[in-house]
Amino acid sequence: MLAGLDPEQRAVATALHGPVCVLAGAGTGKTRAITHRIAYGVRSGVYQPAQVLAVTFTARAAGEMRGRLRQLGAEGVQARTFHAAALRQLQYFWPRAVGGPVPQLLERKVQLVAEAAARCGLRVQRTELRDLTAEVEWAKVTQIGPEDYPTAVQKSGREAPRDPAETAQVYRVYEETKTRRGVIDFEDVLLLTAAILEDRPDIADQVRAQYRHFTVDEYQDVSPLQQRLLDQWTGPDGGASLCVVGDASQTIYSFTGATPDYLLNFRTRHPEATVVKLVRDYRSTPQVVHLANGLLAQARGQAARHRLELVSQREAGPEPVYTEYEDEPTEAETTGRRIQELLAAGVRASEVAVLFRTNGQSEVYEQALSDLGVPYQLKGAERFFERPEVRDAGVLLRGAARAGSDPLTDGAPGLAAQVRAVLATRGFTAEPPAGSGAVRERWESLAALVRLAEEFERAQTAAGGPADLAAYVAELDARAAAQHAPAVEGVTLASLHAAKGLEWDAVFLVGLTEGTLPIIYAKTDEQVEEERRLLYVGVTRARKHLSLSWALSRSPGGRASRKPTRFLDGLRPGSGAPGARSGGRGGRGGVEPGERQAGRRVRGPVTCRVCERVLTEAVERKLRRCESCPSTMDEALYERLREWRAGQARKQGAPAYVVFTDATLMAIAEDVPASRQELAVISGVGAMKLDKYGAAVLSLCAGEEPEEDPVDVVDGDPGEPA
User: Fold this and answer.
1) Global pTM?
2) Average pLDDT over residues 168-178
3) For residues 111 and 98, what is the distance between their CA atoms, to the nearest angstrom?
4) In CA terms, which of 93, 225, 305, 319 is 20 to 30 Å from 364?
5) How many angstroms separate the CA atoms of 580 and 572, rounded?
6) Whether 482 contacts 63, CB under 8 Å
7) What sections of 540-624 are H helices per DSSP?
8) What is the mean pLDDT of the chain?
9) Does 29 show up as a binding residue in the annotation?
10) 300/314 Cα distance (integer angstroms)
11) How far is CA 115 from CA 65, 121, 661, in A?
12) Rounded CA separation 686/696 (Å)
């Protein structure tokens, strides 16, 4: 159970008693770590499967977790979304706590919101209605009532879609209408479950007796309402049975009420918590990781102070490609042709994605790919196993499996051939139909079932297991229950928000212009930082090939008034801006050639030179030791360096950290360099600083006074962040 885990993942898996906080960077194997933790607890007898509840935010993620736990032999563990877990408890305890049947669940609240708006005398367009519904949802998950909504909007700096007083009125009438009709919405499921547990200690004790071990994935996306329910689940002892997993740098849903505060403050709430940081990136190449680290190096705010600097574990790959186009159609067409080249080189279509900031940007890419004959799927359609053609195919396959001998499958050589024969009765052909649309989407679904049969047959044959229709249908049923759909063989078109949690061999990030990313309505500093995190999520979806592009105008011949996103300043070629340097492997992303040639970048994890623990904090990595490990720093040299730095800062009229940070001076005083080459490998000493200050620093290290330099005020040299 533990053999295939790295040291940090192993630390997660063996920390069976809470509170445990796992800070997991993108691509670091967090799902692997937490599922192995649960399975290890079950297999070792510490956990009873029925007493474990793992919650996450999407049915797909919960399904993936159930599938992995099933493969690890941890049958019986509950892995659900917050809403699914709460709904089960609400249905079970409602008759006892309240009496009578559970109110009917309102699947879609838009129609009722529209009715409430009409009752308030408001005329609301369809697009406005969707925004109005989102405001009601935000207010409920942040536990804000109708009367407090206008004040809350003003305090939060939220961009309200219409007058807050009108929204509050609609919100109030909506709640009154629900109560009168005896229906509840999805937010009410959480609210009512939490309220029952708060009001009925006997029921709360029963729930806590049932579930003794909790795991919460994507904890950076927890809302105040979800945290309230979680507190009731875990009980007065707080985090004694709790393990949370998240990454503040991937907080991209604050507009829905999510907040990283609970993750960032977990150690404050639970001082005894075990904290494990996962920074070994197994997904992306060093070039992709370097760009991702560079984006976060420029970030500001509380989440940025807790950022994780990833260390790629993969071999080097191609550099990210940055491309500027005259107009959007040219950007889309050229992107399509580059995708064609990748497909011709052997990259599968399902391993390519085009990601954009808003869904409205998809049309030009749908058209471009259709014109080029490149298959694609637009992310956000029905779940695979809920599609009508897939349900219909399942019925046919079950019938053929029960029949045993069937004219359709008799004589077909192997499982995959039998599946093709059965699906042929519903129009499946070896070649896809021309064009796109519903017919093509239906064929892609059936083709995915055929590919799954091929993969299942190979796996079963290699393992010596049954590879017949009955076994295949059982596998389909298990996947359907776990929402574990096979990939449709087409290029994915998706918004950056929809891409969260997914990954591809090749990713094209398109439309990266000011006003689109960051989006034009991102006004506050925190809103802009969330847009930066959104781009970070997009970058970290790529395993190997990464392309970033923007168009100067919307249409051919239009005015070239657009500018590339500020987030790439200092990272893309030809730009220069603060904070361009970061850890990871150097590449085109704004790293000066001299730094790479000096060999200062570390290719693997940085370990403490005293205790050999993997270091994740920036200061510790710079010093190459844990803060708690003994220092070998030359105190006298450190003070001489600080005094010299102060003089340089005065000459330049700049803050002292622009010359060197305290951490860099400490690193120099701990590992005293005797040559220019030794100085170059110290983190924080780049090529420009080596040329400018190297001679003076080496003189101080040798116990000599540096030569007086002429006053040299550098215009726009930002140094490095404090």
Assistant:
1) 0.65
2) 93
3) 27
4) 319
5) 9
6) yes
7) 593-597, 618-623
8) 82
9) yes
10) 29
11) 39, 10, 60
12) 15
**How many Cα neighbours within 13 Å face the side chain of 146?**
13
Cis peptide before 19 (omega within 30 of 0): yes
Q: Where are the alpha helices (DSSP H) in 249-306?
A: 261-264, 266-269, 286-297, 302-305
Residue 337 CB neighbours (<10 A): 12
* DSSP run (H or E) holding 508: strand 504-509
- Binding site annotation covers 24? yes
Nearest to 16 by CA among 31, 33, 32: 33
343, two tokens: 């497909």
Dist. CA 569–CA 574, nearest whole Å = 9
Per DSSP, what are the bridge partners of residue 323? 549
**Residue with tokens 């490998």, as numbered in its chain:** 681
For helices 201-210 and 82-97, angle between their N-to-C axes, nearest 10 degrees? 140
Q: Would the annotation count 576 as a binding residue?
A: no
Hey, what are 372's tokens? 């080029």
Pick from 41, 389, 324, 53: which is nearest to 209 by CA? 53
- The β-bridge partners of 495 are 356
φ, ψ (nearest 5 deg) of residue 322: -110, 130
Q: Which amino acid is at 417?
A: A
DSSP 8-state secondary structure symbol assigned to residue 399: H
Per-residue DSSP letter, 493:
E
Q: What is the mean pLDDT of residues 366-372?
A: 81
Please compute Rg for the chain using Cα positions: 28
SS3 content of the chain, % helix, strand, coil (to 5): 50, 10, 40
213 near 51, Cβ under 8 Å? Answer: yes
- Alpha carbons 675 and 678: distance in angstroms, whole number: 5
Residue 36: in which H helix or E strand, if any? helix 30-43
Please provide residue 423's backbone torsions phi and psi, each rounded to the nearest 5 degrees: -75, -20
Give the whole-angstrom CA distance, residue 74 versus residue 35: 9
168 is in an annotated binding site: no
Chain center to CA of 436: 30
pLDDT at position 237 over 80: no
Residue type, 9: Q
Find out whether 710 and 619 touch, Cβ atoms under 8 Å: no
**How many CB atoms are located within 10 Å of the residue 675 CB?**
10
Over residues 553-562, the pLDDT tens digits come to 877 777 888 8
CB 486 within 8 A of CB 350: no
Encoding tokens for residue 432? Answer: 């896809």
pLDDT band (50, 70, 90) for residue 534: very high
Contacts of 74 (CB under 8 A, 6+ apart): 35, 38, 39, 42, 43, 49, 52
Question: Which residues, listed in sequence order, are joined to residue 121 by a DSSP beta bridge?
Answer: none
pLDDT at 598 over 70: no
**DSSP secondary structure code for residue 488 in this structure:** P
Residue 706 is given by DSSP the state: P
Known binding residue 587? Answer is no
**25 is known to lie in a ligand binding site:** yes
Residue 632 in marked binding region: no
What distances in angstroms separate CA 126 from CA 132, 146, 355, 382, one per listed residue? 10, 22, 26, 21
User: The tokens of 312 are what?
Assistant: 């790629």
Contact 103, 153 (CB under 8 A): no
SS3 state at 494 = strand
Strand partners of residue 378: 493
Annotated ligand binding at 583? The verdict is no
Q: Distance (Å, rounded) from C-alpha 698 to C-alpha 717?
A: 22
